[in-house]
Design a protein that fits this description.
By secondary structure, this protein is α/β, with parallel strands linked by helices.
């Protein structure tokens, strides 16, 4: 029999006109998660990742301190959705393993510094003015008195909750690619709609490395910890990865962009003791700019397969047009 959420039966309705989604609509989403996990199991997947990161829905609920009703406010309410999804998956007799990817900490939205921006050339990122929103109750894993600094106390609690619900893998990332991309995906070159790095991107790599180190030190036994945001390390990625795993700062190093441009990066480091520098990701961000324009994601600058696609030229033209529009003052920047 198909899984049904109890709130659907009671036709739970809108609790506040400030809510984008009513509690009843959220209940409908739980049912969709349960269905998706069933499809994954039937397709042969070993586990599903219940994503709580990057400004997507479950990440928003973790930071829903001001939401009224059963999905906002207390830690218990803000994590209710996870508990309901997992209870639903199990009530559906689905034995699939569980993983959770979570933004361990967030920050405020950033935008290009107008004082240092030129037409068509966004300046370095600066935080939005949050002075009239203090204490800051709009983000998970930050200090309410200073949301530019992280506070992992609730992240540890969340990790413990996940372990108690049978989650075996925690994959930590940070922030959101949509409003503070330098926190989440340290890069030398921003995506076409972004801002220049506010500081050396190594600062942002180190922030995630240290956060994951603290979380790993408190991780429940048997939980597998995966860290993120190592690609900006470029030629030094294999050495750092080896150190982090050997020193027990993380169990696994999760790699994003660097394997797009160079899928055999780690194999070459181990087997050849050297990398091909022409394939190392230089964080040009085309793999992000492209899908934001409705094109395939891929490493257009370094991967011949993508460079030869018609999308490569379309992306080039789009970027040129975006630049020209920004120069004429008709384009807006977004994080
Ligand atoms: C093109 C692209 C697509 C991504 N898609 C996802 C995604 O669907 N889900 C997710 O959790 N992270 C996604 N990420 C973020 C990466 O998983 C990773 O956290 C981020 O790129 C930082 O790691 P890196 O320095 O190894 O690239 C994406 C990143 C890129 C560049
Ligand atoms: S497009 Fe290629 S070089 Fe640029 S960030 Fe993506 S993977 Fe790295």
């Amino acid at each position: 029999m198909a899984y049904r959420h109890p709130l659907l039966d009671r036709r739970f309705q809108v609790t506040s006109d400030r809510q984008v989604l009513s509690d009843g609509e959220v209940a409908g989403i739980v049912v969709d998660y349960v269905k998706a996990a069933r499809i994954a199991w039937n397709a042969g997947a070993d586990f599903v990742d219940i994503k709580h990161c990057h400004g997507y829905l479950l990440h928003e609920f973790l930071g829903a301190f001001t939401r009224p009703g059963r999905y906002g406010g207390s830690f218990e309410n803000r994590t209710r959705l996870l508990r309901e999804i997992i209870a639903g998956i199990r009530a559906d007799a689905n034995p699939i393993e569980l993983a959770v990817r979570v933004s361990a900490f967030d920050s405020v939205p950033f935008h290009p510094d107008p004082a240092l921006s030129l037409p068509g050339k966004p300046g370095p990122g600066i935080p939005e003015d949050f002075s009239s929103f203090l204490p800051y109750y709009y983000a998970f894993g930050v200090k309410a008195k200073n949301p530019l600094e992280y506070d992992l106390s609730e992240t540890v609690r969340f990790m413990e909750l996940c372990a108690s619900l049978g989650v075996k893998i925690m994959n930590f990332t940070a922030g959101s690619p949509y409003y503070n991309p330098h926190i989440q995906r340290p890069a030398a070159y921003p995506p076409s709609d972004g801002y220049l790095p506010p500081h050396d991107p190594l600062v942002d790599v180190a922030r995630q490395v240290q956060a994951v180190r603290s979380l790993k030190a408190k991780a429940p036994k048997d939980m597998l910890i995966v860290g993120s945001a190592y690609s900006y390390l470029q030629d030094y990625l294999p050495q750092v990865a080896q150190y982090l795993v050997r020193a027990g700062w993380t169990d696994l190093v999760g790699i994003g962009r660097a394997v797009l441009s160079y899928p055999t990066l780690l194999a070459d480091a181990v087997e050849k003791g050297a990398l091909n520098p022409r394939l190392v990701c230089r964080t040009f961000s085309d793999c992000t700019s492209a899908p934001r324009q409705g094109l395939f994601s891929g490493c257009y600058p370094l991967d011949k397969y993508y460079a030869a696609k018609p999308d490569a030229q379309i992306l080039k033209d789009l970027k040129a047009r975006q630049k020209a529009a920004a120069k004429s003052g008709s384009a807006k920047h977004s994080g």
